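Hey, I'm writing a tutorial for new members on how sequence and structure tokens pair up, and I'd like a real worked example in the thread rather than a made-up one. If someone can provide the structure for the chain below, I'll link this post from the tutorial.
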Amino acid sequence: MKYPESLKHWKIIVITSILIFCITTLAIKYSTVHTDTYKITKTERVNNEYLVFTDKEVLKNVDDFWFLKFNSSDVYGRLSDNIGSTVQLKVQGFRFPILSWYRNIIKVEQ
């Protein structure tokens, strides 16, 4: 079956748009790194992610290849022991509620 030329162009536009969206999302996610002070209110393990509830927002704590972070279980243990206290956390990413994306804890800087 032969497709009209206009349909071929739409396929290219859609595929290109999806690729641009994915690349832009990843670039923004991994370029937004900052340190802030949070009061830990609760910690919880959900599936393969550790969630850390704070006075400002919910953060996740998972291993991250891009930042060479492979100690999320240790970080979760430290944060679980510090419920109710204030800690300084280095976080990356952004919160995207529609897809349930949370910012990731990179380092606990106490």
